[in-house]
């Protein structure tokens, strides 16, 4: 008596399923397997990873910190009548008060950074993070210069 059991697995190729924008690894970053894009064909498509590098975290936190420094220096310089807020959206929030200005600046910056983080492997997102960091450094350098020459 012979039993012929064939183990035919009917599974679809997991690589054909998209990686969900938000998954269990997005927030905690532990256990994710997709750390890099390995195939050239995948580099041309939108490809989300489960792992976010410490370097990316440092860049994101630096931008967020620089955003706070920018908000503080902007408020100081506006209070001393050295500058005016030229961004119409932020000028509107500043008219509502200091706290709405700071909260909206935080949420706009943090929301943008979350999107750039999720799409970190996209060419525009990569360049965008570097550009934002450079612009904030330039703005804060200029603001510090203005505070220095007025005192």
Strand content: under 5%
Q: What's the helix count?
A: 6
Mean pLDDT: 80
Number of strands: 0
* Net shape: elongated
The helicity comes to 55-70%
Order of helices and strands: HHHHHH
Estimated radius of gyration: 23 Å
Regions with pLDDT < 50 over 5+ consecutive residues?
Answer: none
Please describe the biggest sheet, giving its number of strands, its sense, and whether it closes into a barrel: none
Q: How many domains, as an integer?
A: 2
Q: Between the first and last Cα atoms, what is the distance in angstroms?
A: 98 Å
Keywords:
151 residues; 2 domains; single chain; 6 helices; mainly alpha
Description:
The chain has 151 residues and is mainly α. The protein folds into two domains: 11-51, no CATH class; 53-150, no CATH class. It has six helices and no strands. It has helices spanning 24-28, 40-43, 54-79, 88-96, 98-118, 123-150.
